[in-house]
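Researcher: Final request for today, and then I'll write up notes for the group meeting. The sequence and the SMILES for pyridoxal-5'-phosphate follow.
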Amino acid sequence: MNIPFNKPYFSSNSIKYIEQVIYSGKTGGDGKFTNKCKKLLERTLIAKNVIMTTSCTHALELAIQLINLQDMDEVIMPSYTFPSTANSVLLNGGKVVFTEINKDDLCINANKIEEKITNKTKAIVVVHYGGNACDMDKIMNVANKYNLYVIEDVAQGFLSTYKERQLGTIGHFGCLSFHETKNVSAGEGGAIIINSNNEELVKRAKYIRQKGTNRIDFELGNVDYYQWVDVGSSYCPSEILMAYLYSQLENIEDIHIQRRKIFNNYVRIFRDINSDKITFYSKGNKFGDFNAHIFYIIFKDQIYSKAFIERLKNKGIAVYTHLIPLHLSEMGLSIGYNKSDFPYEQFLYKRLIRLPIYYDITDEELDKIEEAIRETIH
Ligand SMILES: Cc1ncc(COP(=O)(O)O)c(C=O)c1O
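Model: Predicted protein-pyridoxal-5'-phosphate complex:
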């Protein structure tokens, strides 16, 4: 019995909905299922404007484009994130400024942001790591003090909350991922949440998403033809993907109950083992509801994490490390960072291990994982 790290959720409605799209002949973007996903997300997240996109990467690019970076304006973000967070800034002519994370929840250290602010700072991108919420009150206070935009990278945080508010609805923009590896997926997909009543801004997002054209006005019957009106790209997902996503969004409650059950089982095991080889294991989102996206353990030494991966691999169980901090990566070094800049992040990346969580993991599989963990860590 091999146990993968992740298996995308399967809903039997997915085939039915995809068939409906194919037979309807409307397989491009912005049809019935795109609208159903948008409405469901707006209702669930209590969000003003959700616009479906082809990925979180594209939602981030769209958000950064909307804030009009100029002349190497600076954007602060943690080094401990996925490359898309930083690419969005570089693609728009900005400068990436890395900062530290907290040692436990691995979210941006809100107390360290202010010292990175200069007169070129335009925005802060916060990353809700593994479903843990960043300290949004502190972050919004700093942002308001210096008049900065806040973009929430919610790729891993869909349906976790911060003090009863859904992640992605607190900053100026929220960017969601529905990649195959996420709790709910379209294969590839995402959404941008625009937390503003500014209709011009929302309209501009729609233009950018539709190749810089006002196609949306044409489809609403407001203009006779559509034309090139802005610098844009193609961020509008196919109806086929949105049909597949909708079949999953219908079951989000059930998916999250099941994921939290698996997560809590890991917490029980590691609390019980109480090993001095481990410096920290995740316990959930300290600020609110938790989507149980990732369960991670941080080993004291690389020797232990390496042995743990090997041991579980030999038993057919896939466990993974996670992000290579961006300041340590080839691109990070090429934009002027040094390996020694963020010692904790450097410590972390070979010592943090993620365990399997997926909806239809069986009790037998969980027992096998528990047995392997107990044999490996004492
Ligand atoms: C923090 C973070 N941001 C952005 C992304 C990119 O998401 P997508 O694959 O939907 O483009 C990921 C992907 O895992 C991520 O973890």
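Model: The chain has two domains: 13-249, 252-376. The pocket of pyridoxal-5'-phosphate is lined by residues 55-57, 81-82, 84-85, 127, 153, 155-156, 177, 179, 190 (CB under 6 Å).
Researcher: Thanks, that's everything.
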